[in-house]
Design goal:
Number of strands: 3
GO molecular function, one term: transaminase activity
Pfam families: Glyoxalase
Protein name: Aminotransferase
Organism: Melittangium boletus DSM 14713
Distance between the termini: 15 Å
Strand content: 35-45%
CATH architecture: 2-Layer Sandwich
Keywords: Aminotransferase, Transferase
Largest sheet: 3 strands, antiparallel
Oligomer: single chain
Length: 53
Amino acid sequence: MYVADVDAHCARARAAGAAIVMEPYNTEYGSRNYAARDLEGNVWSFGTYRPAP
């Protein structure tokens, strides 16, 4: 899922009770990503990469 500010989004998710399963990191192709498990057990991936339309 695209988010503009991965670090701020991760901080909000953590404060809301999500378990961060992969801390924010930079990819070799220029995106910044992280992954979190929500309160229902679903794992979500977030990052700044957005393909061109």
